[in-house]
Amino acid sequence: MAVSVGLVAQVIENIAPKYWAEEWDNVGLLVGSGSKPVKRILLCLDCTLEVVEEAKAFDAQLILAHHPIIFKPLKNLRADNGAAQVPLRILQYDIACYAAHTNLDQSNISSSKVLGKLLGLEKIELLERIYDNRDDQLERGYGVYGYLKESHKFGVVWKDFLDKLKKSRVYAQDYELSGVRLAGSLDKEIRKIAIVNGSGGRFVPKALFKGADLLITGDVDHHALLDALDGSLAIADLGHFLSEAPMLQSLYEHLTAEKALQGVEIRVSSVNRSPWL
């Protein structure tokens, strides 16, 4: 059976149903036809113009992005509208674009779970579990928390974490670990760690409630940071991109292991990287 965009969508939605997405989110097929045949797929966090050109050079029929290319309402598709440039280019090249965003964040292949395993956390639990009567088998929620085998100083834990990031295969590409910010005493003893990929500032109260010593996340704003420090919660801000990029590798592994997609060439974008210097 020929692989179509619709079949790829079905494979993704088997582990991250669209109805899991937040109401404000915009997931699913955003550009193109579900019946379009697929021989090559390009994975990315952000479908930028550079990624679209990479997809064209790769001869991809589908771009599978984490962040939706159409998020805020588009009032027009004019050539002088910056927000319309990516959809216009994709349409010009006849490439489909599918987004799996907050639904994928809640799945078993989320970056939070990947990083938790990388750290060797024990007794891993969801930081924010979401219950739904429609979910009989799939467990879902945002972030994770767990325990190191023994406590170590923040500075030691962070050095070990960065070493593991560099040596492991959780990143599909050799990303520069730039833009990382730490807050809290490097001498603080760390044992219980919470992890939330993406913008995790809103999870500071949840991490405090769970008694975490450290929250690893991205995009923590000033006031959320102060709340964390007032509660003796150390913060490691990887930035949005680096905290979510592990999901590209786990998604790649999931898709390439899927029997229904055998014969489809799948690649993780090499040009989609953190925009921070």
UniProtKB/TrEMBL annotation:
It comes from the Bacteria. One of its GO terms (molecular function) is metal ion binding. Transmembrane segments: none annotated. Keywords: Metal-binding. A divalent metal cation binds at H66, H67, D105, H240, E244. Pfam families: DUF34_NIF3. GO terms for cellular component: cytoplasm. The keyword Metal-binding applies. Belongs to the GTP cyclohydrolase I type 2/NIF3 family. This is GTP cyclohydrolase 1 type 2 homolog. It comes from Desulfosporosinus orientis (strain ATCC 19365 / DSM 765 / NCIMB 8382 / VKM B-1628 / Singapore I) (Desulfotomaculum orientis).
